[in-house]
Amino acid sequence: MEPSIQEWIDTLNQHGEAEKAHRANQAKKKLNLPYKILGVGNNRIVYEWNEKYILKVAISKKGIRQISNETRLFTCATDELRKYLAPVTESGPGWLLMKKMVTPIPTTKKSLREVLRIILTFEQANICPKDILGKNEPKWSNFALDQEGELVIIDYGGFYPTADKSLSPESTAESLFHDESKDAGPPAK
After folding, report:
1. What pLDDT sits at residue 57?
2. 151 is a domain residue
3. How far is CA 116 from CA 51, 54, 162, in A?
4. Could you give phi then psi for residue 48, rounded to 5 degrees?
5. Which residues span the domain enclosing 74?
6. Which superkingdom, per the lineage (predicted)?
């Protein structure tokens, strides 16, 4: 991987964190990567590595944890869960390569039911799928369709295991499901 990525991660580990905009600008300058920037979040920059893969690079200590979470979750997930995750193909401290998913999903009732079913699947596996829901609807930008047209999650750095064997009825997916129950119907099995 690019030596500048390791230098940047070392800088993050040695110094405090600046505001997001300043941090992102610092990262872009220090990294000086020759790739197109697809997006800048609060904690990571996403580059187009090539036509098939994206490169996520941490721009904060939280971003380092998110990279680690995505790598660990994809590596350790059961086949049932992994089919919903964009594949991580390679990773290192503060960076990962992920299969590029470019097809946005339609924001239909059918897609909503599928998202809710996926969220419930993770919750039932004692994994809290944090940061994929906004207010009363999914964060559609965190989902895409794979080459087979199946919905996958492209940002799962905020997911974490929960010791609670059954999340409360107020869990995010359940509350959304109950809000949409008259229109959306039950999640597909």
Report:
1. 95
2. yes
3. 30, 26, 18
4. -85, 105
5. 3-99
6. Bacteria
